[in-house]
Design a protein that fits this description.
Largest sheet: 2 strands, antiparallel
Shape: globular
Strand order of the largest sheet: 1-2
Structural class: mainly alpha
Strand content: under 5%
């Protein structure tokens, strides 16, 4: 393989790993504070992407065409919308079922995801067809020994990694993060210490959902397309990344996201028919890893969750 093709695969892997890590962090946060799996997470991501696309259409109708203004508005509205939706889901669907069997929450969030997906397909204008997401980032490239490194890829990866680092700092270096970790470690003790349990749960779900919206906008800007079914695969991959990394551990979620992207890249490079089997290869390796190490690569410790 020539260096140019290898560089392209590497760049794609880093991009995918960043997106997967952002989705996986959401699953880890939800599980950390409430021990629940929110299977509507991928469809919330999709809704954030369509919200961003709608903002773009609205800005065009207002005559606003500055790409940086558009990107800022798209991100702001999408993240706020999905963060609010995440908090609403936590408040009215997840918290009321807190004492119910875990299967109940799994099923209700799975059904909610289907409802969101079908609502977009049926009620969004021409929602059943893919939408051409705008290419708002610079497309200039630098030739690195036969590999053209595009400016938009660098910007997206840098932004995604910045968000991941920011989330890590919030969880581990702020009073809010301390409260989230306290609730994750021992709910009753956290309440006794004066922590507003309900508010922390709502904020945590908002943060995880907002991170998913950011990943969805990244996906749209990179592939220049969004569709109503995109959350299915991204949500499943994000969940697998969180599991293989160690569900309940934010570092494990990040590791799992990049590991899954690396497996897809290896599958695309090494297997016959390239990308046709990359997902099969990645999921197959993840199954083997889960059978070998069921607790994940970074096992959760009861004294250090989230």
């Amino acid at each position: 393989m020539d260096i140019g093709l290898f560089g392209q695969y590497l760049a794609n892997g880093v991009m995918l790993g960043t997106m997967y890590a952002l989705v996986a962090v959401g699953f880890t946060l939800f599980f950390g504070v409430l021990d629940v799996i929110k299977f509507s997470h991928g469809d919330v991501l999709m809704l954030g992407s369509f919200t961003g696309f709608t903002v773009y259409i609205g800005l065009l109708s207002l005559g606003i065409e500055n790409p940086w203004v558009m990107i800022a508005a798209i991100l702001l509205v999408s993240i706020i919308t999905t963060a609010a939706l995440g908090a609403i889901i936590a408040r009215y669907l997840v918290l009321p079922l807190k004492s119910a069997p875990p299967l109940n929450i799994l099923l209700i969030t799975l059904m909610l995801g289907t409802a969101i997906r079908e609502a977009v397909r049926l009620f969004y204008p021409d929602g059943s067809n893919p939408k051409a997401f705008p290419a708002l980032l610079p497309t200039a490239s630098v030739d690195l020994g036969g590999f053209a490194l595009r400016a938009d890829s660098v910007i997206l990866v840098a932004a995604g990694i910045t968000v991941i680092i920011g989330l890590n700092l919030v969880i581990n270096r702020t009073r809010l993060g301390l409260a989230i970790r306290a609730v994750a470690q021992d709910e009753e003790t956290a309440k006794i210490m004066g922590i507003n349990y309900t508010m922390i749960v709502l904020v945590t779900f908002a943060i995880g959902s907002g991170a998913a919206a950011f990943a969805g906008i990244m996906n749209g800007l990179y592939y220049n397309e969004v569709n109503f079914g995109m959350g299915l695969l991204l949500g499943l991959i994000g969940f697998c990344a969180a599991i293989i990394g160690g569900l309940g551990n934010i570092y494990g979620a990040i590791l799992g996201g990049f590991l899954f992207a690396g497996l897809q890249t290896i599958g695309a490079v090494a297997l016959p028919f390239a990308s046709a089997y990359k997902d099969v290869f990645a999921f197959g390796v993840v199954i083997a890893l889960m059978a070998w190490k069921p607790t994940g690569l970074i096992a959760e410790r009861s004294s250090d969750r989230v």
